Amino acid sequence: MTITITAFEHSPDGGKGLSRDTRVRWALEEVGQPYNVRPLSFEALKQSAHVCMNPFGQIPTYEEGDLCLFESGAIVFHIAEHYAGLLPSDGNARARAIMWMFAALNSVEPSILEIVVVKFAEGDKPWSKERMPLVFDRIRQRLRPLSARLGDAEWLDGEFSAGDLIMVSVLLRLRMSGILDEFPNLAAYVARGEARPAYQRAFAAQLAQATGT
Amino acid sequence: MTITITAFEHSPDGGKGLSRDTRVRWALEEVGQPYNVRPLSFEALKQSAHVCMNPFGQIPTYEEGDLCLFESGAIVFHIAEHYAGLLPSDGNARARAIMWMFAALNSVEPSILEIVVVKFAEGDKPWSKERMPLVFDRIRQRLRPLSARLGDAEWLDGEFSAGDLIMVSVLLRLRMSGILDEFPNLAAYVARGEARPAYQRAFAAQLAQATGT
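The joint structure predicted for all components is written out below.
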């Protein structure tokens, strides 16, 4: 069955790969599944046809036959569950890989997305400048234990998994802030993720889309 | 195999059921699995024995034989995957139930947890009072489409699922704020969740723990 995902017609980051379609593209590249992309304008995102699919009016969504999903974590999980390459076959190792997906999305990403609130949603507020260091400190509170747990390991738990794919995608959002450089093993972990051929293909595809090339 | 979870020795909410062990207890009650609880003091949470299990030093964790998990979403998913009652058997319906778990944890809960930042982490800051309405507005931006999607339905997608269990658990955090009452169908949805016998048993168990009765 044909897989179709949605992505921004013009990504707000201009092709830095931070839009959430990149993690879905990466997962599809890891498992070797071809996919189509339906680009959506910001206006289309708010229209009912899309809202019926994703009530929160966001990208990416995923269509495959009768199945229609939104929420990048759920989409990556669905891909990982149905195609080999992103989840270990051992039951306990599989549960831990899924655990890292949830940990990345619920225990790490929210602290990082606060940067967007400070910079954009509340960028014009008088407290904006003073709040940024507090937000950065809360991010460090998450990165410190994550860095300690990763240690010298290549990936979070044995082989590369969907848990690493989501965690690297989440940490990539920190590149511009410089915080990642405070944790050299996490910076190296992210670099290992980016060096994977599947990530490279996914990145190139979203960049081509963003720049119209 | 015996299931053991961790919970706060003394829950910071005094037994209102907002600590994340409640959602795990609820899931175990829904699938009819007995469990033990290992209560942890705040000091114990930061000690290495616990940190080895959950690097972020939080409850709940889940032990079953050789398996050791943290992150409430991952634990509820593991329970739902291994015991009948929380995920539909139809493949597409199952994927959508899992999608709602991720949506609750990644698209709804982060906006709600910002209340904690305003009230506690930044409660002493001069901008605290002025920021609260902004945080409330961002919560409404999530609840409005969620309410529209739920409509008059009993649950988010057909039968009650792990997706509803997590979404209700997340929305329960809003009770004190009054925001939930602005969306009568969401308030009724949460009330339906709370009325389930399994939730009642889970709530009673965490309350007994919190109050030492």
